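Weekly puzzle thread! Below is a chain. First person to post its structure in token form gets bragging rights.
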Amino acid sequence: MITPNLFHIKNTLQREPLTTAMNNPNQITIRTIELFAGVGGFRIGLERVSSKENKFEISWSNQWEPSTKTQHASDIYCERFGFEKHSNEDIAEVNVDEIPEHDLLVGGFPCQDYSVASTLKNSHGIVGKKGVLWWSIYKILFQKKEKAPKYLLLENVDRLLKSPASQRGRDFAIILSSLNSLGYAVEWRVINASEYGMPQRRRRVFILAYKKGTKLYNKLENFSTTELLNKELLLSKTFPVKPIDNKTLIIEKLDSDLVEITENFNTKTPKKNAFWESGYMVDGKYYTSRIEIDYNGEKSVLGDFLIDEKYVPKEFYIDDEELKKWQYQKGAKSIERVNKATGHEYTYSEGSMGFPDALDKPSRTIITGEGGASASRFKHVVEVNGRHRRLTPIELERLNMFPDNHTQGVTDSKRAFLMGNALVVGIVERIGQRLIDEV
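Winning reply:
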């Protein structure tokens, strides 16, 4: 079992800014901090594309799960990468001065309500809701001032672009405007990993920000909007798209007052999209368009990532009696229900799902409730050699492109939960490779 992380090593090590090595003018080291680190998905992806000549160096990491006493994700992170330079405490309580200087900040932060209560007029700071982790990122950038990182690489669920439902796009507008106030340009893309040859159908929005004065920022002035969205943005180069249809192009100016955005953004047409799945923002103005994927490379399918059946523990197999429960959960159904609060009667309906999961297609999205033997509509079930079974922890790791047994040391259900919270590492690899080539 993994030894619990019983202490937090504070690292106040100061390093030289990102430069080339004295004995090798072509060598680049990008000092990186990983926030909301989970079990280290960003780190694995960035380290895979690192070399002696050009590398991402994780100089600090933070992982804290507020809802549980045992810090499973942090414990696994430390087991794989070491305790040194790792923080297992609430990021909102971390003293920013204790975070070493860095060139790149990465993390998959939760989708929350980012609304702003008020601005601090004297310091130009922001008062957001307590516990909303976007503001912990903002605090680091704001307090580091001129030593703030040159680049950010963030990940979130794609509904961020449409939340909240009552003011579609407001939360993302707050993020963009606050980054603009700190001197960053931003590009974003919703990426379904399977559409670029990876083994899981997982849609996430990736947000890349770069500071004024960097090579990537300056590049924005050298191309037209169409050229940038089509092929010149870093994310467009990494994940190619077909030429955009200008009919869907939206160009809008963001308000610099975050309270104004909180209260009034998209209130006139709250159900209308303000942001599409691809776009960029510079100098407070954003450009966004719908896209079509342009990928003709190799494809990955679920069946390619299964372990040999002789290594599957017996508890993962489903007997004939239990199989009936799974078939019911996966099937179409129409159920009469009563709202307990109002007494209103209504019919709850849901369609059927493919059962068992197809082995010749990418897997469905892994969810946090993937573990456990109980029948579920959303857990994966495969049929191999005429027998039905659930996916093992190693198979879930493979579908996220993690190393085999990366999460070993906790229960199978917890391993499944951790993979449901993780990202597809291959996306980070491709972005990391492009980033190190471009900077």
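Puzzle host: Confirmed. Bonus trivia for everyone else. DSSP finds twelve helices and 17 strands in the chain.
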